[in-house]
Structure formats: C-alpha cells, structure tokens
Amino acid sequence: MAKKYKQNLHCRPTAIGVIPWLWLPIVILTYSLCAISADKTAIDPVAVTTTTNPQIILLDIDYLSSLKETPTQKKEAFEEIITHTPKAKPKPVPKPIKPQAHTIDVAIIIDDLGYNKKQGLAAINLPGQLTFAVIPHSPNAKYLAIAAHKKQKELILHAPMSNIHNYPIGESGLTDTMSEADFNNALSDALASVPHISGVNNHMGSLLTQKRRPMEWTMKALKDRGLYFVDSRTTSHSVAWQTAQQFNVASLKRDVFLDHQRDTAFMDEQFERLISIAKRKGYAIAIAHPYPETIEYLEKNISRLKEHGITLKTASDVVNYHSPNKQQQAKM
Ligand SMILES: [Zn+2]
C-alpha cells in the first residue's frame, strides 16, 4: 500500500513534465478568467452607482468597455447600473419664512421710584412687564431696585436734569452749566448708583434736553455702556432723541403721560390715547408714577391692553424692536 502511494507521488510531476505544451494554454485561460472575475468584484456596480461622482460612473463605463461587449450590451449594462441607482433623496425645499405679524407693543415706565418705599413696592408688585425708573441717591433707590430686579422687572436710571422751572434736581443732577468733565462724573456716579439698569430716561430736563452739547455727552456715555435712552419729552424742543440717533444709541420718545391728573376720568382718557397711538404706530410708550391712584388704576386696567391685541413689554424690548438703532450689549 505504502509502495503504491509512493509510486503515485512519483508519477504526477512526471506526467506534467511529459506534456508541458498541453498545460500552458490551460494556465493562461484560467489566469484570464480569474482576472476578469477579480475586476468584477473590484467594481461593484451598486457600490459605484450609489455615488453621484461622475468620475466613478465614467470609470464604470470604462470597465464595461473592457468586457468587449457589443454596443447594445454596453448600453443595457449601463442602463441597469442607472436603474439600480438608488434615487438620491430630493433635498427638502426650505419653506419660505413668513414674516410673522409683530404684536402691537406698549411699554409703561413707572418714574420717580426711590422715595416712597410702600408705594414703590406696590408698583413693583403690579402684574406684567412694567419698567421702573429709579432716581439716583433717593432714600430707597437701591432697596427698590433690588426688589424690582428680584421680581424680574426692568430697571432704568431716572437721570435728573435741569429744567426751565428751576426745580431742584438733587444729587448727581445734570445741568447745562457743568464742564464736560463734571458732567461726565455726575452722570457716571448716577449710573453706578442704581443696580441692574439697562437704560436711562430723563427726570424733568425741560432745559437740559434742549441743549445739544450736554445731550451729546449723555449719549456718548450711554453708547459706551450699551444703555438705551427713552426721551421723557418734558419739552417739545428736546433734541435728546435726535442726538441719540447720531450716537447710535437705541432710543424712543415717550408718547403719553398717564397720570398728570390723578383722577380716573383723566387716566381713562390717557389710557385710550395710549391704545390708539399704539394701534396707529405699532407701539407706544407711556410714563406713569407710583401714586396710589395710578397703581389702583393700572391694577384694574392693564388687562385691557390684551383685549385690544396689545402686548405689554419692557421698555428695552419696545426700544430695541422699534428704534432705528439697536441696543448694544449692556456693559454695566
Ligand atoms: Zn421724574
């Protein structure tokens, strides 16, 4: 048995060696078939066609040509590749963004906060996004500012300015007789004395707001600190708003004083004016005071704004949306 096996091993190379010319064509043929097969797996039509790269499609056409097919076969094979191409998902067409109809905005600023603690707190407790203007160095300025801030109410400095009646304007008040340095020091002091402020409006100021130079100094200081300005319009000759525009300070003007007279009939009239101006312009700014009558009136009537499709917003929201200049990042 072992001898027979040995004989078989011995016989194989002998047989190949005997007829080498017979093996050569077989080896060549086998090698060619393997090469074609290897090529086929190297270019997987599905894999190729899942890409949109035109170079790879061209490569595939080259491959098809290399198979030496007839033009019809080539076309069919190519069409099959195209047919099996998974259709690329159409890119979602972005829907045109409809400009949202903006709400009609009203801001109500409660001025002169800082003297009467009880009335100040009552005003801060009014519902909605009221804005509170605090007089610098008034006895309860810091206390009320912190209380308002805790209630997430907006605060501004109620900057005292000289007036045509010569009413006293108190500490850190601004006058047209000050040098630029004194003016800037007084304004810096006032701004630093009330925490959490995001803007300024004028307390009195029927004289100072008519003066171009002091208004330029004011607006430069506000611009440097990223604060907005509401012109209380204590005189129709005020140049404060125009100067704010020149210095790129976000600014609007007061439209209505709600409580020059503290009776309900007068406040009703002013409230109606506020609503009608807001509807006409798209926004309006009112100024009121922390008088008991005003607080009572606002408690009863703030909800009327909503009935008219008007939104009560902070002064900064209204100013930043409607002012030609937008407020810069506050740096206070
Ligand atoms: Zn005031």
Q: CATH homologous superfamily of the largest domain - what is it?
A: Glycoside hydrolase/deacetylase
- Residue share in helix: 40-55%
Give the mean pLDDT: 80
CATH topology value of the largest domain? TIM Barrel
Strands, total number? 9
Tell me the number of structural domains.
Answer: 2
- Major pleated sheet: 9 strands, parallel
- Radius of gyration, in angstroms, nearest whole number: 42 Å
User: Which CATH top level class of the largest domain fits?
Assistant: Alpha Beta
Structural class of the helices, strands and pairings?
Answer: alpha/beta
User: How many helix segments?
Assistant: 13
| CATH architecture heading of the largest domain | Alpha-Beta Barrel
| Assembly form of the protein | single chain
Spans of at least 5 consecutive residues with low confidence: 1-18, 33-87
Q: Would you list the SSEs in sequence order as H and E?
A: HHHHHEHEHEHEHEHEEHEHEH
Bound molecules: zinc ion
Helices and strands in order:
Elements: H1 2-18, H2 20-42, H3 45-49, H4 54-66, H5 71-83, E1 104-113, H6 117-124, E2 131-134, H7 141-150, E3 154-161, H8 180-193, E4 197-204, H9 212-225, E5 228-231, H10 240-246, E6 251-253, E7 256-257, H11 264-281, E8 283-288, H12 292-307, E9 310-312, H13 315-322
Parallel strand pairs: 1-2, 1-8, 1-9, 2-3, 3-4, 4-5, 5-6, 7-8
The protein binds zinc ion (ZN).
